[in-house]
């Protein structure tokens, strides 16, 4: 029996249409419509033609014959989604309280959905006659028609070239091409151009270092787990222990077994380096996916994956949805990073999604880190055989030595500059030895605050509950939440006195002071402001690697993952900012950050020194980071977590209500609060460990007032609660407020 009915989801994000609609498959499309295919259907009273996705096929329907509309046409000839992705979308709907379309839209790039970018065609030309003959012709026309001669000369060398590229090489080439075509000397073809991201990437020779014993053991353990059903492993390797080499060996075997691989990295800035290493081994088998690709690149990479041309996908968070079939291994690099958690609806965790996909594909999920999250480490060590360790750096390279500098003593000695005496001395030494330096600063801009010396008034954003950051060139105060810029006035608004002091340190200020102290040094700054252009990360990394700068100054984005060979000194300008952030995991963040930054030093043949400036040298997180001793940190932190029932023992949930009107926000929060209370009275089997309803830590962002209800459950109860918590949110409707539910949030500002 042929399927004559297709159940489709329409591409409209609204609760009212978050269900399947039946359509008749017209005779000419019978057997040509498959699940996961995109089709055009007439929808609604006006029969507007819209895009839809086929979820199921059937030979029957409850819809009356005369009411059953017909599919208009197929959009592509192949299914845009596989069955396992459709199932994943269903699971995401339950877990993240989103609509099916919300999930589906994460899986099909918008440039494909909206047909915005057509595959670009380019005209290429090639020779018609044998090369020897063409050479003679060149001689004869050289004088009269130099452009034509030029085109022929090029084509002798390269066989085929796009006309646009010829024109770039020499103006007038396209006219010459037309003339040559007329003479019948060359022929042209229209070919679809595949847009590959990072075409400027340098592909080095594939050096295959001999694996050391620890690497071998890890590879063996992973390889023997391939094709044996779902399993999770934690690869815990200190910085510079050669984790990437382990990934590549595991992937090679995976591909040989006929399956595909997915590698996730926490930040887009880490993709170029990985691409160049992977490209040298896997060539064209790899595809790249992240949100900064152009619409066209995204579409082309996506199609290369769907059609099976690319077998290894590398990318940031959103790449977890890559349309790979038959996944044998998913690798999550730097698994502790919060960037794996999406901060917009649907608030998915790429690691959770990776786990769902791993289970569906019966593959290995390999979480990797030098400093795994406390949560992951706890869960993994509850099971045997899950943790693989690379305790040493490759080639017996020593771990960098870390010096803690007590900045209170610096002030006491009269040093009020950004740099401690020790950091300054070491910088001077490194510079004269021709070694490179990295300075880590946790803020971009010039300084963190603009404050009045007389009354203490601090410049704040009008739209947000935050202080402004001072930026140089041009001089202005910027809100890092809403990006609003303010003029820095000479006089304090409160007391009318003239002096403003620029407190705190940002990347700009560090760069400025470095250049004052070392006028001959060449600096390179990597932060949000300097990394706006496409490929900026790649260019900056290449610049630094080629030695075109002596000192790299940067924020978070340079802290992890990057493999620079000539860096002998790393300076952490201030280690304290993360330490006292009012979140349960602030110690963990501080420890991770320092360990990660320190890990950038001494990765080549040079030794590595790290100077960490702090006002809290006795804090246990800072001391453990100095010793780069994860286990010691973990042992102490896990005790504290247990005592407070923080994750992994407890699990947080947050309802966040935000909106323009403070009273509306409060009223809606009250509605949710009442429903929660009623639910708790009704079902006493699960008791929250904590319950709080109050304004959020940042009470206002972008002119939106924010109110939160935070609940803590014991970890084992959490999963039972997910569906009822979502139901309560969906029952409340508000025209004026935004309602969010965050389950196990990574931060709660
Ligand atoms: P990390 O563990 O910090 O991710 P990487 O994978 O970036 O470390 O490896 C650091 C460097 O060590 C890389 O340049 C890599 O090519 C090199 N490397 C990896 N394994 C070996 C090995 N067994 N012998 C020598 N060099 C190696
Ligand atoms: Zn603001």
Rg computed from alpha carbons, rounded to a whole number of angstroms: 29 Å
User: What is the number of beta strands?
Assistant: 30
Low-confidence stretches: none
Which structural class is indicated by helix and strand composition?
A: alpha/beta
Helicity level:
25-40%
Total of DSSP H or I helical runs spanning 4+ residues: 22
How can the largest sheet be summarized?
A: 7 strands, parallel
Mean pLDDT across every amino acid position? 90
3D architecture notes:
It is a single chain. By secondary structure, this protein is an alpha/beta fold. 34% of the residues lie in helices and 23% in strands. It contains 22 helices and 30 strands. It has a seven-stranded parallel beta sheet, with helices on both faces. A six-stranded parallel beta sheet has the order 16-26-25-17-24-23, with helices on both faces. A five-stranded antiparallel beta sheet has the order 2-1-4-3-5, with no helix packed on it. The mean pLDDT is 90.
